[in-house]
Amino acid sequence: METIKNYFFADMEVMLGRSMRHIFRSLDTIITVTIMPIAMMMLFVYVLGGAIQTGTGSYVNYLLPGILLIAVANSVGYVSYRLFLDKQRGIFERFHSMPIARSAALWGHVLTSLVSNVMSVVVIVLVALLMGFRSPAGVLSWLAVAGILALFTLALTWIAAIAGLSAKSVDGAGVIAYPIHFLPLISSAFVPTRSMPRPVRAFAENQPVTAIVETIRALLSNQPVGNEIWVALAWCIGIMLVAYAFAMRVYQKRG
């Protein structure tokens, strides 16, 4: 059993390295996942921020949690796209014919999503600091934020894995990113939900992104998180577990 585990982690490390090389060699991925969220943050802070009333002292402090979630959402299309290419080119079949753990190839893509998003989040936070973002949060609060972002990333990544493994075309693999992009836009990420029309407000206040954004915002401002953190964790863990189960089922069926 110990030997099998050692081989599994070694195989997964190789697959992670393979997928990370694809990320570093893909300029469009870097632009979409890191530069575009930064550009959006600058647009909202320096162009639109003066016209948006949030009831807080600094709009960049209010905006940052939503930008971090958008950065994660931007990355999932690439996960499904690269999984589809591996499936279409028969890469999984080649790996399965080798003496490596069967699920290592899939986990390589998932961990690549997690690692690459960690790097993009760090860069975005550094830029936000240059733009005036300040946080009184302590180490534990920052660790809690990191944990929530990691769960959110894994939840979306496993959804993307289902799309990538099930798609019939490249366009079908990438389309999963579009509905996910709408969730941060129709939430409290950019403006308070109280300013929205009643039907839109009802949706915004009862979808996962708002609970996650509000939790991260409270943690970063060192405010009480209340029940929002449990709602956010329930959404992240629930989506992750369901998506993981379906993704593994599709992977085993097609592999």
TrEMBL record:
<dbReference type="Pfam" id="PF01061">
    <property type="entry name" value="ABC2_membrane"/>
</dbReference>
<dbReference type="InterPro" id="IPR000412">
    <property type="entry name" value="ABC_2_transport"/>
</dbReference>
<feature type="transmembrane region" description="Helical">
    <location>
        <begin position="59"/>
        <end position="85"/>
    </location>
</feature>
<feature type="transmembrane region" description="Helical">
    <location>
        <begin position="139"/>
        <end position="165"/>
    </location>
</feature>
<comment type="similarity">
    <text>Belongs to the ABC-2 integral membrane protein family.</text>
</comment>
<dbReference type="InterPro" id="IPR051784">
    <property type="entry name" value="Nod_factor_ABC_transporter"/>
</dbReference>
<feature type="transmembrane region" description="Helical">
    <location>
        <begin position="172"/>
        <end position="191"/>
    </location>
</feature>
<protein>
    <recommendedName>
        <fullName>Transport permease protein</fullName>
    </recommendedName>
</protein>
<keyword id="KW-1003">Cell membrane</keyword>
<feature type="transmembrane region" description="Helical">
    <location>
        <begin position="229"/>
        <end position="247"/>
    </location>
</feature>
<feature type="transmembrane region" description="Helical">
    <location>
        <begin position="27"/>
        <end position="47"/>
    </location>
</feature>
<keyword id="KW-0812">Transmembrane</keyword>
<keyword id="KW-1133">Transmembrane helix</keyword>
<dbReference type="InterPro" id="IPR013525">
    <property type="entry name" value="ABC2_TM"/>
</dbReference>
<feature type="domain" description="ABC transmembrane type-2">
    <location>
        <begin position="28"/>
        <end position="254"/>
    </location>
</feature>
<keyword id="KW-0813">Transport</keyword>
<dbReference type="InterPro" id="IPR047817">
    <property type="entry name" value="ABC2_TM_bact-type"/>
</dbReference>
<keyword id="KW-0472">Membrane</keyword>
<feature type="transmembrane region" description="Helical">
    <location>
        <begin position="106"/>
        <end position="133"/>
    </location>
</feature>
